[in-house]
Amino acid sequence: MKAIVAVDNHWGIGNQGNLLISLPEDQKDVFRRYTIGNTVVLGRKTLDTFPGGRPLKGRKNIVLSRNADLEIEGALILHSTDELKEYMHRHMEEQLFVIGGEEVYRTLLPLCDEVIVTRIDAVFEADTFFPNLENQPDWIETERTDPISSVKGYHFRIMRYRNTNCQ
């Protein structure tokens, strides 16, 4: 399983339930390229931020929620990390991408073998954060692109980190 996330220089990912910024180049060339045709794992709060609160098209959507009565058309609802582990064991051929939010990232990060980070060279007002992988002893940077310019006036890099505990 992999995680994919866009962060600012302080590893912020959101503010008041919204992304810090949406960069078209990141959405199309990174997020979409990696996740389309694959399985995304997200929390219910993250799903609520999507247009119409609907699952992403072109992907299998797994929504994690403690609500046993939750039903979402077009999504598989799982209620625990153990249920997700069972799913992963039964569907080993699927590529899963954790896409948020903060609690889901923190819970599932130890199960991820890789994280693809869009690192935006800016600091935004944020109230939710991704763990700073540069301070995590089990994570090492394996790749970094040259800076990419966005039409929104920001620069960003795509960075990859590998979990040394997952071989």
Description:
- The chain is 20% helix and 34% strand.
- It has 167 residues and is an alpha/beta fold.
- It has helices at 24-35, 44-48, 81-90, 102-108, and strands at 2-7, 12-15, 18-19, 39-43, 60-64, 75-78, 96-100, 114-120, 128-129, 139-144, 148-149, 155-163.
- Strands 1, 4, 5, 6, 7, 8, 10, 11 and 12 form a 9-stranded mixed sheet that branches. It has a 3-stranded antiparallel sheet with strand order 3-2-9, with no helix packed on it.
- It has a single domain, classed as 3-Layer(aba) Sandwich (Dihydrofolate Reductase, subunit A).
- The chain has 4 helices and 12 strands.
- It is globular, with a radius of gyration of 15 Å.
- Strand 2 (12-15) and strand 3 (18-19) form a beta hairpin.
List the helices and strands and how they pair.
Blueprint: E1 2-7, E2 12-15, E3 18-19, H1 24-35, E4 39-43, H2 44-48, E5 60-64, E6 75-78, H3 81-90, E7 96-100, H4 102-108, E8 114-120, E9 128-129, E10 139-144, E11 148-149, E12 155-163
Parallel strand pairs: 1-7, 1-8, 4-5, 4-7, 5-6
Antiparallel strand pairs: 2-3, 2-9, 8-12, 10-12, 11-12
Count of discrete alpha- or pi-helical segments spanning 4 or more residues: 4
State the share of residues found in helices, binned by percent: 10-25%
The count of β-strands is 12
CATH level 1 name: Alpha Beta
**Spans of at least 5 consecutive residues with low confidence:** none
The arrangement of helices and strands along the chain is EEEHEHEEHEHEEEEE
- CATH architecture classification name: 3-Layer(aba) Sandwich
The best one-word shape is globular
Structural class computed from helices and strand pairing = alpha/beta
What is the CATH homology-level superfamily? Dihydrofolate Reductase, subunit A
